[in-house]
Amino acid sequence: MALGALAAAVVGNAVIVGAFSGASLLCGILIAGLGFATIYPMTVASLSRFYGSSAARVGSFVFGMAAAGGATLPWAVGHFSASLGSLRLGLLVPLVASVVMVGLQMSIASASRYPGRATADEGSLATADQGVVKEKGRG
Hints:
Blueprint: H1 2-17, H2 22-37, H3 39-51, H4 55-84, H5 87-90, H6 92-113, H7 120-138
């Protein structure tokens, strides 16, 4: 689901960059907006499903990075627009960011298909939890 929403956001951003009229610009804005609108609720829902008791810790990192993107991307659009002399070229920044988000979502989807593959942090937590259980069972 999230991958489809991000694909819509990429298409919307591409329409914005290539817009030749106000109507096509409005269509791109609507497509991108509808694509991005569903990302937040799906991310919140998936955090607890994928990360269980670690969801709060992972969520704070995820939403911190989202805030950093929201703070830096408008500046980057302005900077590149001013440097290159074209707002159209500056609007490539959100398009590239959307493509990066698709790549991140694909890696998350891949990791969720293979739950046996734990990250280093998850692997160490699982080992530590198993050790505690074994010690409790001894005595």
